[in-house]
Amino acid sequence: MSARHNLTAAFAGAAATCAGNGIARFAFVPLFPALVSAGWVSGAEAGALGAANLAGYLLGALGGPMAGRRLGTRNAMGAGMAMLVASLLLCALPGGALWLLPWRFLAGIGAGVLMSLAGPAAQRAAPPSLRGRASGIVMSGVAIGIGAGALAVPALLVLGPSAAWLGLAALVAGLWFFAQPRFPADPGGRSPGGRPPLMPFLLLAYTLSGAGLVPHMIYLADYAARGFGLGVTVGSGIWLLFGIGGLTGTMLGGWAADRIGGPVSARLWLGVQVAALGLALVPWWPALLLSALAAGFAAVGISAVTLAWAREVAGPAAGILWVRATVGFAVAQAASGFGFAAVFGATGESHHAVFLGGLFFSVLGLAATLAPHHAGARREA
C-alpha cells in the first residue's frame, strides 16, 4: 500500500483543521479591524467575540470524543463541518455583537470537534513509521487555512463584511465536500488502548502555551491595522505571515518529534513562542513581522509536537491523552480570551497589555517543559 493511501485520513484531517481552525476560527483575526471600522462591533466587543469562539472550542473539544463514539468518526466530523458552514452563513447578517456572539460560539464548537477527532483518527490509520508525518499533515491544515483566510478576506472585504463571511462559508463548504468521503469510517465505540499515562508536564506545557497564544490568535491583525495604523490590508498580510510560519512549524514539528522526541521538541517550540511574544512588545512595526512568523511557527507547530509526543508516550491510548491536552488548551484559551478582552477594554484598547500577558503565560509554559518528568517507555501500536 502506498504512503499516500496510508495518509488519506491525514489529508482529510488536514481539510478539517483547515476549515475549523484555519478558516472558521482564525479568519476572524483579519476580519477583526474591518468589523470595527465598519461599525458592526467595537474593539472590545470584537475581542469578546474571539473569546466566545474559544469558549465554543472548549465545548467542542469536550464533546468531540463522545460524538465520535456515538456517531462514528465520519459522521461526527461531518457534523462539525456543518456547524462551521452554518455559523459563517449566519455571521453574514449585520446584527451586532449580540447576534454574532452565538454563531462565533457555534464555530468554536465545530472546530473543537474536528480538532479532537482528526489527529487521533489519522494516526490510527497510518503505519507507525508515518505517524509523525500524519500529525504534521493534519496540523498543517490549520496553517493552510490561516493563509487562505489572510488572502481571501481583503479581497472579499471590497464588497463588505457580509461578502467576506459568505466567501469563507463557501471555502469551508468546498473543504467539507472534499473531506467527507475520506474521513475514517470507523463505527465509533470505546477508544482503543486503555488508560494513558497522566503526563502532567505535557498537559501543563500545552495548556499554558494555549493561554500565551491568545494575543496573536485574536489581536495580531488589529495590532497592525489599528495599533500601528497600517490598515486592514497590511494587517491581513501580517496574519498571512503567521500562517506561513505555522505551515513551517507544523511540518518541522512532526519531523522533529520523530527524531529528537516530544519533550525536546516542545522546549524548542515554546522557546520560539516566548521570542514571538517578546518581539510583539517592541515598539517598531517591522518587529511585528518577525513576531508573526515566530508565533505562527510556535502556535500551529506546538500542536503537531504535542500530538506526536502523546503517541510516543501513550501508544494506542494517545487519543485519550490528546483529548485531555486539547481540552486543557481550550480551557486556557477560553479563560484567557475573556480575560484579555476585559484587559483590552479596561486599558483603552492597549495591545501591549494583552501581549505582555501572553508573554507571561508563554514563559510559564516553557518552564513546564524544563521541569523533570518521566515520559515512560515508548509504546508503538
UniProtKB/TrEMBL annotation:
The chain crosses the membrane at residues 48-67, 79-99, 134-157, 163-179, 200-218, 238-256, 292-310, 322-346, 352-371. Keywords: Membrane, Transmembrane, Transmembrane helix. Pfam families: MFS_4. Residues 6-375 form the Major facilitator superfamily (MFS) profile domain. This is YbfB/YjiJ family MFS transporter. It comes from Roseococcus pinisoli.
